[in-house]
Each structure stands twice: as C-alpha cells, then as structure tokens.
Amino acid sequence: MPEINLNLNFADLLKNHGINVEIADEFIQTDLPDKVKFKARTEYTTAGGNINSRLDVMALTDKGEQIIESCGDVGSTIEDAVSRNFKNFSMGSLHPLLASLGCIDPHTYDQITIDEWEINNKNWKSYIGNLVPKIITNSKRPIAPPFQFFDNLELAIKSQRLTNRLHWFRGYYSQLDDRISTMEFLVENVLHDDTEKIFSTIPIIPQTKFYSCRVFIVLKNMDFD
C-alpha cells in the first residue's frame, strides 16, 4: 500500500500550537516534556475513482511510551484525502493528545474536556476530545450524539485494569439506514472483546441515511506527576 511521509505537514500543525519542532531521524523532535517526538504518514488506496486514505500519527516519549492514533477518509485526489485526514484528526484527536503530552497552548484546552476519574483506586486525568459526528440525512432537525455513546465508553474505560502512566482509547460507531453497521472500542489500538456489548444500547436515529460518531480519550495517571 503506498504511503506518504507527512512529517512536514504535521510539524506545521504542531508549530501552530506553540510547539517548537525540528525534523531529524524520521521523527519530529519537539520541546514538549519527556522529549516527545512524532511521526506522521498517510497510507492510501484508489477505488472507484476516489482515494481511500488513513492518517497515522505516532507519539513517543523518552520513557518508552508510544501512542498511535489513526483516522481515515475518502477524497477525490490524494491532496483532498490528506486534507480531510488532517481535518478529522484536528477535530477529534489532536488536542487531547497534545494536552496529555504537556502542550500549554490555550487553544488546545478550548477544544477538549478535562475530567478527573478514580479507577482502581488511582487518580487519573482524562483528556477527552470532541465528539465528532458525520451525518447524511434529509431531516432538518439537529442530531446530537446519543448520550449512550459516551456514557457507555466511560463505564467501559473505568472497568479496565490500568497500570501505565498513559492509556488511550478510541470509540467509534456508525449507523447505515436503520442498523448499527460498525462498532469500535479500541484500547491502545486493540479492539476490546466487549465492544458489541458496550454499543448494544445505542439507539437508532430515524430518517437517517448515515450517522457516525467518534471520540478519542487519553488518561494520565496523576500519581506519576
């Protein structure tokens, strides 16, 4: 599968959030705490005259911690697909990722919710990204994400056995016509065995051709600070 190195593009995104960067040894070096460095790329395929692409962003700390987050989309050209990838990533995953890694840019914190959770008798700071929906419908009424989507994910996260300083999670589901077509609860990029159970109470949204919602969450153990 062809891929494109997007370190230059991602470095510009980091600079826009007040982060000093330098590209070296295939990584974007930064002045974030823990000597955080990044790598960004897009893999793509061509199908039906469109470009199906997936942006992969890797973050590494000097403690050996590694976070990998991905998002995909379809574009009419490679440039269009890459632009959509970055837009999706910026809307949902970028800001909780940067905040959890020590970014102090005020705009970053405008885009997330920070909460404190107690899990396994440990205190965690949760960096919660925006809920990012996609909608195809003839209905003119606004469609809010079903409250069960986030509530069920929160309960599932709080039931995990968390032992590291950092943990990350992605929740995603889609509805096609009158059925739930895709469900994902990823724990460190691994699909959780109880994913179907977690999403079993998601209601069907009427008069909707397509609906999806996505959220990215990073937990940081406060006892490590």
Describe the structure.
The radius of gyration is 18 Å and the shape is globular. The chain folds into two domains: 3-100, no CATH class; 113-224, no CATH class. The strands form two sheets. Strands 7, 8, 9, 10, 11, 12 and 13 form a seven-stranded antiparallel sheet that branches. It has helices at 7-15, 78-92, 94-100, 106-110, 147-158, 195-198, and strands at 3-5, 21-24, 27-30, 37-47, 50-60, 66-75, 113-119, 122-128, 132-137, 166-176, 179-187, 190-191, 208-221. The model has no long low-confidence stretch (mean pLDDT 94). A hairpin with a 2-residue loop joins β11 (179-187) and β12 (190-191). It is of the alpha+beta class and 225 residues long. The N and C termini lie far apart (41 Å). It has six helices and 13 strands.
Could you outline the blueprint of secondary structure elements for this entry?
Blueprint: E1 3-5, H1 7-15, E2 21-24, E3 27-30, E4 37-47, E5 50-60, E6 66-75, H2 78-92, H3 94-100, H4 106-110, E7 113-119, E8 122-128, E9 132-137, H5 147-158, E10 166-176, E11 179-187, E12 190-191, H6 195-198, E13 208-221
Antiparallel strand pairs: 1-4, 2-3, 3-4, 4-5, 5-6, 7-8, 8-13, 9-13, 10-11, 10-13, 11-12
Short description:
This protein is α+β, with helices and mostly antiparallel strands and 225 residues long. 23% of the residues lie in helices and 44% in strands. Strands 7, 8, 9, 10, 11, 12 and 13 form a seven-stranded antiparallel beta sheet that branches.
